[in-house]
C-alpha cells in the first residue's frame, strides 16, 4: 500500500475522517449497551433480586460431623425466632443430608450448606436456587417457595464416579402444616416419608 | 522516527487507558464494596469498614444458634489420608500378634463363618474406623464392643496396619456366572442410590470404605438392613443410611449376592 | 513467504487428528447419556471420556492451531523466515509428549477428574505433568512470537506492525499470562498432593486460580478466529478491511480485559467476596466491547466487498457478495453462532440470570456453540485458506467444502439449541446418565435425543473436513502465488507507539489481574482450617 501524496491525499484523508466518525459512533453505541447492562446489574443488586452471598464463612470440612452446626442431629429445617426457617444441609459423596428437605410455603427460608469432601453443586429444580458447595466454606442461600410441591435437587458439579446418583428431594408443604410439625422444636426433614 | 515516549502522562494513549481502567475499577469497587453491601438485608453491618471487609471476602464467624445435639453416639473419627500415620513393619508385626485373637472370626482360615467379614487385605482406614466406632459406642455389637473396649489407640492403628498390609484373599464362594446387577453398576439415581461400585470396589474405593469383593452375603445384607432401619448409625452424617434406606430388599439381596460371588 | 511449511503442517495435522478423536468421544458421550442408550452404560467410562474430550479440545487442539497459525502468520506477515524454528519443533514435541503423557492415565481410568481438575479430587500425577508439558510447549511459542516481533521491529523502526502479526502476538501474550493461573494451581496446589507430599488441599483457592485461566482461555481459542475475520476474510471475498486501527484496538481490549474477569465463573462459590464478584462482572461486560467493535468492522468490510462487486442500496450489497466462497460461508455461520452464543454469554454474565442456568446443560450448550461452533468453524476456514500454500497443491474448492461447513453449522445448531433448552429445564451437566423414566426428567428426553442427531451431523462434517485436507495432499501441484493478508481501506502509515506495541497493554493486563485477583488469593492463602483431604481417583487400595 502506497502512502497518499499530493492532491489524492485530501480525498483520502476526507474518506478516512468519515470512516473514523462512523466507527466512533458505533463504539459509543457499543459502550452504551455495556453501561446499560452494568446499570441493570447494579439496579438488581440494590433492589435485592438474587445477589451473591454477601459474606464468607468457613467451616473445617474434616470435623463437621464432630462439632459445629453441621453435626448430624442439627441438619434439616429449624424454625427461627423471627418465624423464618433455616435449613442446614451437608453434601458429601454421593448424597445430601437430609436426603429429603421439608419446607414451608410462603416463608422466608435460608439454606446453610457445606461439603465434607468434594465440591458439590446445589440446584433446586424449578426454582432459582443454584449454588456451589465448596469444602471449607459455608454457602448461605436465601429462598422462598410460593406454593407447596415437590422438587428434585441434583448435585450439578462433578464430584466423583457416583456423582450421577446424587439426587436429593425438596418437599414444600403448606405453611400451617409445617409449623404444626415444627412445634416440638426438632429438626424437620421428610426422609422417612 | 523520533521515539514517542509511552509511559508518560503526556501521552494521551497512556493517560486515557490508565485513567479509564483505573476509573472503571474504582467505580465498580465503590459500587461492589460500599453501595451493594449496604443494600443487602440481614448483613448487620457495623460500619463502612465492615461493609468493605465482608464484600472483600474476609470470613465472618457464624452467628450463634441453638444446636440440637445427638441423642446417640456418632462416629468421631476424622477420616483422611494421614489418619493412620506412617506404617512400619513393627506396627504391622504388633498388629499380627493382636490379630491372633481376631482370626477365628475375621481371618482367611475362619471356619464355617459366613456372617463375619474377612478382614485380610481390607483398607486400614476402614479397619481403624470401625474399631474406634465399636470402642466409642457409635457402632454397637455385643461381641465386638467388649473386644474393642480393651484396645488402645496404638493397638487399633497396628491392627489397621496389619490387615491393610495383607494381600486380599480369594472370596469364599467365587462364582463368575453372577453378573453385576444394575444396583451395583448404575445404582438408582433418582432414589439417590449411586452405584455400589463407585465406593466399594471395581470403579473406585472411597477412603474409609470397605472393599466388598468376596464379602459374606449374609453380612452385607445384614449391614444394609441395619443402615436402612437406623440400627447402625456410625456412617458419618448418614452417608450409607441415605443409600440403604432407599434400597428395596431385592436390591439388597442382589448386591449382597454379587459381592459374595466375586473372586 | 512460507519457509517452515512442514512445521506448520505438523501443528495443524496433530491438532486435527486430536480433534477427530475427541469429536468421536463427544458424540459417544451424548449418546451414552441420552434416552437412545439402553440404561446400563458405565459411569466410570463416561467420566474418563469427558476428561479426555475436554483435555484434548480445551488444552491441546486450540493451542496447536494457535501455534501453527502463529508461525504461518509470522513468516507471511513479517516476510521473513521464522527465527528459532528448532525451538518451535521442540515446543511441538513438548505438546505432543505432554498430550500422550496426560492421556495414558486418563484412558486407563486413573485421572477421571475432568479437564477442570476439580480438586480435592486428585488423579494420577502424570495427567497433570502432561498438561504442564503442553503448556510449557505453548510458552515456547509465546516466547518465539515475542522474539520474532522484536527482531522485526528492530529492523523496521517506526513501521506499523502488520495487523495479523499484531493480533497474533496479542493472542500469545494473552495466553502466556492466562495460563499462569492454572499453572499455579497445578504446580503449587495439585501436584504436591498428587505426588503424595501433601494430603490436603484448599479447594476454594484452587478454584480461584483456575478461574484465572478458565475464562481468558476462551479468548485464546478465539484469537485465530478473530485474526481470520480481520486479516483473511476481507481479502478472500474481494474486499478491504474497513479499519486497521479499530482491529488493533479490539485485540488490545482482549489483552487487557479478557483476563481479570474469571471470577464470574465463581458467582455461586462461597469462598469469594461479593465485592470482587461485582468487579469481575463489570469487566466481563467490558469484554463484550471488542466483539461488538469486531462485528461492526467485519460487516462494514463485507459491505465494501459487496459494493466493489456492484451491490447497490442499503441491502443490495449483501446479495452481491460471493456466496459460493467458503470463507464467506464460514464467517456468516461463525457470526450467527457468535450472535446466539454471545447473547447466551450476556445471560451467564449477569448474576441474576446466571442463577437459573449455572452448571446446567445450558452452559455446555453455550460453550459448544461459541467454541465448537463460532470458533472451530473458522479453524476449518483457516485450514482451507492456507492449505494450498502449505502443500503446494490445489484444494477441492467447490461443493465438498461448502457441504462440510453447512453440515457443521446445522449440526452445531441442532446439537446446542436443545442443549440450552434442557438446561433451562434444570438438567444438570456432567452426569453420565439420567433416569428418563422419572417424571421430573422425562420432558427432557426428546431434546436430548435431538442433540445426539446433531452430534452425528458434526461427526460426518468432521470426517469430511479431514477427508478434504487429505485429498489436498494428493491433488495436482499448483502455484498458489504469494499468500497475503487483507489490506485495509486506509493502510496505516504511521501509528502511535501505543498501538504499535504491547508494553502498555501487557502492563495494564498484569496490573488489572493483580487488582482483581490479588486480595482474593492472598485472603484465601491466609485462611486456616479450610483444607480438605484429597480424594484420590481410581486408585483402589
Q: Number of DSSP helices of chain A?
A: 2
What fraction of the residues of chain A are assigned to beta strands by DSSP? 25-35%
Distance between the termini of chain A: 79 Å
Number of helices of chain C: 18
- Overall number of strands of chain A: 11
* Helix content bin of chain C: over 70%
Model regions low in confidence, pLDDT < 50 over at least 5 residues of chain C: none
What does the oligomeric state look like here? heterotrimer
**Low-confidence parts of chain A, pLDDT < 50 over ≥5 residues?**
1-9
* Radius of gyration computed on alpha carbons of chain A: 26 Å
Derived structural class of chain C? mainly alpha
Count the E strands of chain C.
4
* 3D shape of chain A: elongated
Chain-averaged pLDDT of chain C:
93
Radius of gyration of chain C from the CA trace? 23 Å
Q: What is the overall pLDDT average of chain A?
A: 88
What does this structure look like?
Chain A has two helices and eleven strands; from the N terminus they run H-E-E-E-E-E-E-E-E-E-E-E-H. Chain A is of the alpha+beta class. In chain A, the strands form three sheets. In chain A, strands 1, 2, 3, 4, 6 and 9 form a six-stranded mixed sheet that branches. Chain B is mainly α. In chain C, 70% of the residues lie in helices and 1% in strands. Chain C has a two-stranded parallel ribbon with strand order 1-4. Chain C has a two-stranded antiparallel sheet with strand order 2-3. Chain C is globular, with a radius of gyration of 23 Å. Chain C starts with a helix and ends in a 5-residue tail after the last strand. Chains in contact: A-B, A-C, B-C. At the A-B interface, helix 1, strand 1, strand 3 and strand 4 of A face helix 1, strand 1 and helix 9 of B. Strand 1 of chain A pairs parallel with strand 1 of chain B, so a sheet runs across the interface.
